[in-house]
Design a protein that fits this description.
Helix content: 10-25%
Strand content: 35-45%
CATH class: Alpha Beta
Shape: elongated
Order of helices and strands: EEEEH
Structural class: alpha+beta
CATH topology: GCC-box Binding Domain
Strand order of the largest sheet: 1-4-3-2
Distance between the termini: 47 Å
Length: 84
């Protein structure tokens, strides 16, 4: 059995300021030569400001972790906007 990890596609929290509209989306991924060979991951997708492109910013093996992270991102971005 393979342990799926949490993946963050940014290096510091300040990078989240560029994003809005955080959502959790399901991704079914193939893992050849592993058991199980198909894995369900939960992606955090957000829209990058200025260019309007939706990007995956994180992936989690558990939906609850993805939802908590999405809520944390929304709270961080909201608090950053209030302090400016």
């Amino acid at each position: 059995m393979t342990i799926e990890t949490h993946i963050l596609y940014f290096s510091e929290a300040e990078a989240l300021r560029e994003f809005s509209g955080f959502t959790v989306e399901v991704s079914h991924q193939a893992r050849p030569n592993q058991t199980p060979s198909n894995v369900t991951m939960y992606m955090i997708v957000a829209q990058r400001g200025g260019i309007g492109r939706r990007e995956v910013i994180a992936e989690f093996p558990l939906e609850m972790h993805a939802e908590i992270f999405r809520d944390m991102c929304e709270g961080f971005v909201r608090s950053e906007r209030l302090t400016k």
